[in-house]
Each structure stands twice: as structure tokens, then as C-alpha cells.
Amino acid sequence: MKKYYALALLFTALTTIIISCSKSDDEQYIEVSPVRVDLTQVPYAKLSDYNFFDGPMKNQKPALDVLIYEPASALFTDYAHKKRFVWMPKGTKATYDGDGKTLILPVGSAIIKNFYYDNVQNVTPVGSTRIIETRIMIRKTTGWIFAEYVWNAAQTEAYLDMAGSNTTVEWKDENNIVRVVDNYRIPSEQQCITCHKFNELPIPIGIKPQNLNHNYTYTSGSKNQLAKWIEVGYLDNNLPSTITSTVDYNDTSKSLDLRVRSYLDINCAHCHQTNSHCDYRPMRFAFSETTNLANMGVCVDTQDMADFPPALGKIVNPNNINRSMLHYRLNTDNESFRMPLLGRTEIHTEGVALIEQWINSLSPCP
Amino acid sequence: MKKITFILTLCLFSSWSFAQDTCASSLPITAGLHVVAAVNGTDIPSPICADNGVIAGTNGRGEWYSYTPTQNYTVTITTNITQNNPLRDTRFHVYTGTCGNLTCYAGDDDSGANYSSVDSFNVIAGTTYIIAFDNRWSSTGFTFQLTEGPFVPTTPQRITYTTQNIPTVNSSYNLCVVDMNGDRKDDIAGVSANNLRIHYQGTGGTFTNSDFPIANTSNMPSWSLAAGDYNKDGYNDLILGGQQAVTFWKSNSTGTAYTNESFSQYVFCQRTNFVDLNNDGNLDAFSCHDVDPNVYFMNNGSGVLTFYQSGVTPGATTMGIHTEGGNYGSIFVDYDNDGDQDLFIAKCRGGAGTAKFNEMHRNNGNGTFTDVSVAANLYDPIQTWSSAWADYDNDGDLDIVVGASSTADGNHKYMRNNGNSTFTDITSGSGWDTNTSTSIEHVAHDFDNDGFVDVLGGGNKIMFNLGNGTFAPANYSGIAVGGIGDLNDDGFLDFLNGSTVRYAVPNTNNWVKVSLQGIASNSYGIGARVEIYGVFGKQIREIHSGDGFKYMSSLNAHFGIGAATAITQIIIRWPSGTVDTINNPAINTRVNVVEGSTLAVGTFANSEFSVYPNPAKNVLNIKSNDSITMKNASVYDLNGKLILSSSIVNDSINVDALSTGSYILILKDSNEKEYTQKFLKE
Fold first, then answer.
1. Which of A4, B395, B450, B458 pairs with B520 at a CA distance of 20 to 30 A?
2. Which one of B115, B244, B441 has the shortest CB-CB distance to A306?
3. What is each CA distance from A120 to A124, A187, B75, B277, B497, in whole angstroms?
4. How confident is the model over B586-602, as pLDDT tens digits?
5. Residue among B59, B265, B266 with most chain A CBs within 10 A, to mutate
6. pTM of the full predicted structure?
7. Nearest-CA neighbor of B260 among B304, B229, B221, B218?
8. Is residue A210 within a helix (H) or strand (E), and if so which, with residue range?
9. Cα A278–Cα A198–Cα A317 angle in degrees, nearest 5
10. Whole-complex ipTM
11. How far is A309 from chain B (nearest CA, A)?
12. Exposed, middle or buried, A236 (CB in 10 Å: 0-12/13-18/19+)?
């Protein structure tokens, strides 16, 4: 009985293949993106409901028309790895609004970001990849919404959860050293909007031309990401001839100044720029504004000294990291002092080293 | 030749490195220039008499000198001199006393150019002063200069402070100065993961500390902490305002153990408070939410709390419902003098939205609140994290200093209460208009006991209330808001800053402290209004759990009365409605008032019921209105101790077992409402 059943299944499958093959021979077959973003239904209860990925979801293989992208510099989130994707409805495309401004995406678009660790020690099997969460932003007619999906232990599905939670991750880093994040934070909806907003309206952060104007190695080869977006029809072909662009802060072939400005832009500017969460403080960390050292706090007085020693009276004190509030705030994991306010619980050692190198390179205050 | 140079160098170096390396081997100096080859002595200067705290780790070093003037001078010690090129980042401390028992006398870190150090101070002929440099910033050598100038007497300050480090005050969060064992003396409650460390204040300001292990994971009070006895067992409990959620640490009935009650709901806490929101005699709790509407916790009367979020939880009352939050400094105050606790929220938020506008919520007296921000003239975009409320002009209502943390949307405002639920901006010329120091902390206390409430905000200065509508700054090195209370029981307010206590040195002003013991109201009288009367007129205080932004300060009402030598009357208006009056109390002491203890026997605090006979012998009969059914009776002595608790049978209770004397009777009706009456037992 069992055997017959299997045979029957095989037969059906073969027939299906034959039919579909002959069909594509007869007429021009156009493969259609399986992605489903029904604005009346989203956010769905499960990540798989969107069909963003081909095959087992945990392989993170984008489905047709789901385009991978990567900003030049990345936000530090407790050493989590990330894969980012964008999808737009057929026939729609994004428009340019300025080098340092978020691309204007058409209604129905989705941007998808998976957070994961490799070589994780506190999972079964030990040493496997653990995808923790997938953060999605969807452009509705009324504006952007957030959808947060938390992956199950089996890594077969992720479920909508807007309330936020914590999890412990133990992994071996590239140097085979075991590291632990005790309280990795999966954000609540309110935490999403705290960073992702401009004048209190939700907005994506990473997809700015300044962050995408560099080559990415696609399966089809290396290509400038903006050119790729234009090629696949995701971006209007009306970009200016030059785009003032951020760099990868890890790229030591680039100037220290550009690396630091890129780091501050992606890690700090979402709150510290005009019309954002904390614009009442004097720093302006957006890449477009940091050509001015004063906007980075160099030789600028700290505005509010409550709970800080007087030594931290300057935001950045040239060649004096011990008397620079910026350095202090990055080099602590105390949650009432650390910056960024959300998104990390650990100290980003490499980022702090970069900031130290930069502070020590600055000329004295006038 | 080479060898000789080497030996010579060694000798010279040795003499430099050993002669002044310890306090005991301090090098005597006179006026002039002195070269410090390197800061490498093994004796690390302590206590720290300058800014920027102790040296972390094991690399601290010191260089020691002693100076004994031959006559009185005003001397200056400086490293801000041309001999140092470039100028060095130095720090020094000046002590009196003997090695091992040094007291700070002067000192400086950064008053000179390029972080060099300068301080001037008066010295007395024949007294030895120890001068010690440390390597807080650098071990590099430098030259310092001591100059002797003519003795210039200093103008006395309104109040001065001495600091003392208490090494055992070393919890992760040392934010809280409040009574923890019921004796109404201010203690220090320190919070670490899984441990509550309490320093209990004994006689003469001595401390003994106890550790209480706390099981399970708690949210740490990284944003604020408040204290209140929400399970009403006589011992204060804590609310810990964390970055993701709220935790309560609740005492047991003897104050000998504490348990963790953590809530899972996401709250980016800012200021937290205890307050009796529905006036049932049991404390509820409140937390500002940074990025969402505010949350509160209702007490069911048995110390069990239920989570509510304004504008979100069905049936929740509205105490700040802006969807973007921006709520930083909540404080419960009776702004309209109607006897209940209203809510002011100091708000802060970037961008062009409305989340930054401060809010005033009027208590409707029935557990609900109405937003009256605009009507009260307090709807203001100033970026403030806390605002200081007090009756600054002693006219019987609460005024407000809206303290700016950033001047991006306007500087500080001083607003006078007009007595009709509205406020008028009287900033101009008040001293607040010219104060450019910003802070997330602004608290109101009478620091110098002159009878006018002062404000401590930013800039290491107290803004002293001159009593004429103006405030004048006075600088104190290192002074900052912390837990505030009377940590040596001398009637002058002290500060806890980390593990350092900043003790006020008493001046000649007189004072009184009032501690409260609630019976029908919550145990420490949070929300009570305390009034004193005398030749100075009238002063008022309210008992707040949670003022400023982060810290928790004493629940005792603290009054200075200046040169006045008497107080004619203290009146306590309890949240329950009971009014206690004490005539001609002693001054320069703490007056403890048990709720209802001054009610005259036979004076009915209400019209709902009466008791007879009074005095009673065996049985006390209770006659209540037709509409009320009395269920339970509790009898307290005048020290607030529970003597008897029973259900009411046949409208009476048996008091046969009571000793002769005065008692306070609390009756609870079928709706859990409480009523107070005093009676005599014969």
C-alpha cells in the first residue's frame, strides 16, 4: 500500500515536470516572483507567508526579484551578522531623493533584514548557524510599518512578535574564541521606531544612495549596487553623475576621516541629526554634516554633565580619549550611559579603537 | 666616567623618588617653585579633594609635600606656570590632619589652562598642610609653585560641605537615601544584580550594613529608582526602572528579606514613582515611558500589582498618552491645592513633533486624570528631564522651576502658581534667565535651612532662593544631585554621590523634620501635605516618592526656619483626608506623627459613622450611616503599632483586652474604604 502511494506520487511529479517543460517550449515562459505582500493582510503571522526565500528559509536564498544589498558600513548590533534584501512589486521602482536621503520606495515594497550568528555554541547541533530574527519594513499607502519575526529553534519558521524579547547567544568568532551576548535584544515595535523615524514618522535607514554606491559580489558577478538596482528595474535611472558616499569603516585603505564619518553616520546619525530622536543635543552625525568637525563634537562642550565626572566636559577632546564624552559613551556597556542607546549591549571594541585612533589624530582645540 | 654619571643619576633619581613618595615622607616646602620629577610614589592620595574621582585600577601614584606657614596667608598652589611648557594635566589635594587620617582642605584638577591645576586657600600660622599630587591623568613630571599672599578672609557661604567616602557603599546603583527599617532615619539602599545592600543609620550618623540576596533576574535601575511601602508592612519597598521593564523589590513583614516582582511588559523606564492613585490607602506605582504612553501599576490592597498602560490597556486612565512618549520626569504634586495628587511630566524629544511638550494632568479625585497642560500654562516645549516643584515664595501653593537639559527649545523657566490652577512665567530677572547650566536633574530643597526652598540642577552649584523672587548661584566643587536626606541626623540635608557622602556642615539656622506614619493612608505618608507656621508665616512641603530624574530622596519633610526660634503649629493633611495638628512643637528635632494621633477624642473626622461609648470599657459600638456597612476594624496605638484587628460583629468590637489609653480606630467598609476615629480605653 505504502509503495503504491509512493509510486503514484512519483508519477504525478513526473507528469507535472513534463507538462511544464512542454509548456515553456511552446510559448515565452515568464517566471513570476513568488513573493506575496498583500497590504491588506501584512504583517503576516509567519515569515514564510511572504515567500521571500527559495528552498529552506534558513538558507537565506532570496526568491526571484528579492535583491540582496549591503550598505558600505554596518550598524553594530552585538556582533550579529546580517543579510539584507529588498523587494518591490512588479513594475514599480524607487526614486532618488538625495545622496544622503533614504530612497523613496514605492507602495508595496518590503525591506528584509536577517540577524544571525555563525558557529553558535548554545544550539543543537553545536557550531551551526542560528538566525535569531528577521526585521521587515513594509511601505503601505499610509507610510512604513514594522514587522518583527522571531525564528524558532528548529530554524524552520519565524513568527511575528512585536513585543520584544531577549535571548542568549554563545558563539565562536573568526579567531575561534567563544563569545557570549547574555541579553541579545530582539526589539519591540516601539524600539524599532525609536531609531527608524524622521519627525516621528517611520523611515528606513540603510537604503541611502551614499551607502549603496559600491560594488557587491552578486552570484552573477561584482557590480555597483545602484547600477544593479537600475538594471533590475528597482531604481529610476536618473542618478547624479557623482554621489558623495560613505565607505566601509573596516577598510584601512580609506582615510581615517572617511571611516570615522561612515561609522558615526550608520551608528549614530539616526538619532543625532536634525528632526530625529535626540536632535536637541549639538551633535550632527549624518555623513552630509560631518565635514564640519564641530558637528562631530570636536572641541564642543558636553551639554549636560549630570552623573558624569567633570573630565568629560568636551564631546571630543583632541588627542585625549579620557576626556572625550564620545569615547566614554561608546566604551561602556552601562545601559544608562552607553551609546547607541538601543541595538547593543556589548562594547564594539573595533569601533572604539577606530574612534580612539581618530581622536588621537585631531589637532588641539583653538 | 660613565659609571660615575650613572651612579650620580641613580642617587639623584632615588632621592627624588623616595623622599616624597609617601605621606609619611612628605617633603617640607616653603613658598617658591618645586620640581616634581615624576608622579611615582606608592602612597596614593586619599581622600580625593578635587574633581574626577579615584584612580581606577592599580596604577595610582602620588607625590607628597608638607607646608607649615609662619603666619596667616592666602596661598596659591598652581601648575599653570610658564615653567611647564607644555602645560601638564595635573591634579592635587591639600589636607589637614595626620597621615592615615587626612581631611580634605583644598585641591584642584582642571582650573588652569590645558587642564593644569590652580587653587587658592587660607592657611593659619603653625598649622601643617599636606599637599599631594596624583597621576589621575599623567605621571609625567612638572613644576608647581606655592605663593604666599596677604590673608584675605573668605566671605562665609550659606552652607558648606565636607565629603566622606564610605567604601562599603559600593553597589552597582547607589541611588537611594530613604528609611528602610522603620525608624524614620534615612538609610542608604544600594542595588546590585541579586543583592540589596542597606546601610542603616545608627546614632551619630554611623552606618551598619546588611546584604539581602534577591533571587531571579531583576531589571536594574539604570534609569531611576523610587521607594514606598506598597505592601504596607511598615518597610519601604523599591521600584527599579530599567531600560526594558520594571522590577519591584518587596520587603517581607519584618524587613529581613526582599523578593523580586518583575513585570515582562516592555517599558523604557525614565522617572519612576510610588503614589496612591485611587486613594485607597495603598500605594500604586508609576513609570514614565521614553518611547510610548506611560505605565502604572494598581495595588489590589494586598500588595499585588496589576500593569496598566495609559491609552492602551482597556479602562486605563490617561496619564500621558503621546504615542511617541517623550516622558522623562514625572512628579506627583497637588498643584491646585484640592488635596489630591496631580501629575506633572517633564518632557523631552527631538524633531518637530509634539512629544516634547510638558504635560500637567489633574487628578479628578476618583482615580482618573484630565490633561490640563494648556489651561495651566505649562504646555511648553522646553527639553526637560525633570522639574523642581516647591512653594518658592511661601504663599501656600506649589511653584515650578522647569529645568532645561538642553536649550534647543528654550532655557529654564520659573513659573509662579497663581493660586487658581494657572501659572505665570516670572523667569525674567529671577536668576534662572541667566543660568546657562543645563541638567537632567533639578530638585527642590532648603539646603541652607533659611526657610526658602533652593534648587540643585547643573553646573555644580546650588541656586539659593533669596526669598525675594530671585535665586543666586553658589558653586561647590563636585556637587551634584544624588540621593538626598539627612545622613547624620543633624537637620541639614546631605547628598549621596556614588560612595561619597557630602555632609552639610550645620550653620546657625533652626529647623524641623517631620516624619510620618500613615494608618489609613500609606505608611510613610507619600502624598501628604505638611505645613508649618511661625513668625516666618507659612511653609509647605509634600512627601514625594520620586523627584528629579533618577534618584530617590528622603520621605521626611524637611524645613529650615532660619533665625526663627519657634514653630507655632505643624499641620499634616493626609491623603486619607485626616488632618493632624501639633501645636508648639519642639524645633531642631524630628517630629514623628502617627496618622490620626492628634485627633481629639470624640471629634469625628467624618460624618459617616460614630463610636460609643467613648471612653470605652469592654465593647466599642459602631453606628454608621444606612448606606455604609462596616466590615473590619483595626486598632492602633499612638505609635502606629497594630494592637487589634477583627471583623465587626453586631456593630461592635471587643476592646476588653486593651490597656488604658488613647487608640486610633480604622474601620473598613464593604467597599474597602477606610475611616479613622480616635477613642479612649478606660
1. B395
2. B441
3. 9, 21, 64, 48, 42
4. 999 999 999 999 987 75
5. B266
6. 0.90
7. B218
8. helix A209-212
9. 35
10. 0.89
11. 5
12. middle
